[in-house]
Q: What sequence folds into this?
C-alpha cells in the first residue's frame, strides 16, 4: 500500500501504465486492510497474554513500553487532523471553482490521502480505547 501510494502520488509511469488516482484508491484499500490486520494482531496478543494463554513476547513488551492510551489518542488525533486538513484543502479548491467540475487527477491526490488518514485516525482512536479495555485486569 505504501509503495503504491508513493508511486501514484508521483504519477510514475511503468511502460504504458501510469499510476495515478485509481492506484491511490487501491493503495488506500491495502493500507486500511493491512492496518486493520495489525490491530487485530495487537488485540489478539493482548487478550491471550492477559488471559494467561500465551506468554508475552519481546515485541509485545516493547510495544507496551512505548504505547499507552494517551499516546494512542495523540497519534489518532494528529492522523485524523492531517486527514481533515487535506480534505478541507480539496473542498476549498472546489469552492474556488464555484463548486464546479474539478480535475480528478489533481483532486484525488488530496481527497484519497485525506480520507485514508481520517479513517486511520478513527481506527487508531477506537483501537486505543479497545486495547486499553483489553488490558484491564479482572477483579
A:
Amino acid at each position: 500500500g505504501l509503495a503504491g501510494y508513493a508511486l501514484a502520488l508521483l504519477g510514475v509511469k511503468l511502460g504504458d501504465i501510469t499510476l495515478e488516482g485509481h492506484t491511490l484508491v487501491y493503495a488506500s484499500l491495502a493500507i486500511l486492510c493491512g492496518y486493520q490486520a495489525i490491530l487485530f494482531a495487537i488485540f489478539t496478543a493482548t487478550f491471550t497474554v492477559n488471559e494467561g494463554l500465551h506468554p508475552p513476547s519481546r515485541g509485545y513488551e516493547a510495544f507496551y513500553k512505548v504505547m499507552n492510551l494517551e499516546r494512542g489518542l495523540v497519534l489518532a488525533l494528529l492522523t485524523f487532523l492531517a486527514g481533515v486538513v487535506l480534505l478541507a484543502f480539496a473542498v476549498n479548491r472546489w469552492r474556488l471553482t464555484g463548486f464546479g467540475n474539478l480535475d480528478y487527477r489533481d483532486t484525488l491526490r488530496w481527497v484519497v490521502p485525506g480520507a485514508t488518514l481520517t479513517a486511520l485516525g478513527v481506527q487508531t482512536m477506537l483501537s486505543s480505547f479497545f486495547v486499553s479495555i483489553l488490558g484491564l485486569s479482572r477483579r
